[in-house]
Amino acid sequence: MLKTIEWIPSQPGHPVPGYVRLIDQTRLPGEITYLETTDVQEIWDAIKVLKVRGAPAIGIAAAMGMAVAAQQSDATSTAACLQDTETAGDYLATSRPTAINLFWAIDRMKRVAQAHAELELNAFIDRLVMEARAIRDEDEAQCRAIGEHGVAFLAECRGVMTHCNAGSLATACYGTALAPMYVANERGQQLTVYAGETRPLLQGARLTAWELMQAGIDVILIADNMAAHVMQAGRIDAVMVGADRIAANGDTANKIGTYGLATLARAHDIPFYVLAPTTTFDFETETGVDIPIEERADSEITEGFGSRTAPDGVQVYSPAFDVTPATLVSAIICEHGVAHPDYRASLAEMAGRTSTPEG
Ligand code: MRU
Question: First and final CA of the chain: distance in angstroms?
Fold first, then answer.
């Protein structure tokens, strides 16, 4: 599996400090290049320009960014280092507004920092590095568990549709929506994944198609506007997507275009599943209406990959996410199991569980 984002520890007796290494997703599928950094500004930029993207992965990046900030701080006391770490967290929180995992990870790092403010400076920094690495490792385990729970929903499927990239590249390792597909593949099940290309930045074409091909999973790329036709033709048995934030009532924000697919799935009587770890649940946001939706630069639509495809001066509206009402969601699959409507009760029950499945 891909190592989307990792902490590379310092070597004993070696002067180079630990650092963050992440795949630069803006260069895929053409090149596999890595950003290696100990710089908070570079991590903020990487999140902003989508070198690292996908809700869980940006949470991990922010946590590692705070660990980097602690390590690079020139503070001579733990109290001052704590302050620098919190300032870095506040700054990283300004990078993107929709994925709750970003804010969840920053809050967790702040709580751990505050709880260990009595430690000696080096021990304090080590503790923060440990926490950031734990966030990454937990995400890997959670996504694996999502795959184990989700694979049951693919048992009768030949064709499954997905949108954007909710795979390995969006998380520490297995992905969310793609995790059941990896598990099914390991078990020898033949599946065909229809990946929508995902305008305007083509996460489906550049990332999902690429990573599934790397894994030897059968994938067919379609332009976004082909989804209705492909469903009508009977090629799709289920739709599986990830999430950037799930409100208390089950309304789900995900990459722009997801709501359209959910509507189409309902029209064609195809089950529509959302797969996400509990770190994507936001019980403080009552319904999808209150989820902040990121707007991106006009140029991503008018000249996304270099050549201009719209007239100079045209007005553009570019929301990066939309909200799928809970009523269109057949089930929400997380690391603890499967939430069904009524989601308000079912999601709360899932979040209260602590176990993950065997395997
Ligand atoms: O703008 P992006 O590429 O960060 O959007 C990502 C998505 O919408 C994913 O589907 C979502 O974060 C789930 S990732 C497991």
Answer: 16
Task: Please state, in angstroms and rounded to a whole number, the distance separating the CA atoms of residues 166 and 175.
Answer: 5
* Total domains present in the chain: 2
Catalytic entry in 74, 84, 139, 244? 244
* Protein residue with least CA distance to atom 15, ligand 1: 166
Distance (Å, whole) CA 151 – CA 156 = 10
pTM of the model: 0.96
Ligand 1: which of 164, 211, 261, 322 to mutate, most ligand atoms within 8 Å of CB? 164
Residue after which a domain boundary falls, among 143, 178, 203 = 143
Range of the domain at 69: 5-143
pLDDT, tens digit, for every residue of 289-305? 999 999 999 999 999 99
Please give the torsion angle defined by the CA atoms of residues 246, 324, 218 and 223, in that order, rounded to the nearest 10 degrees: -140
- Asked if 244 is an active-site residue, the reply is yes
Cβ of 208 closer than 6 Å to ligand 1, yes or no, is: no
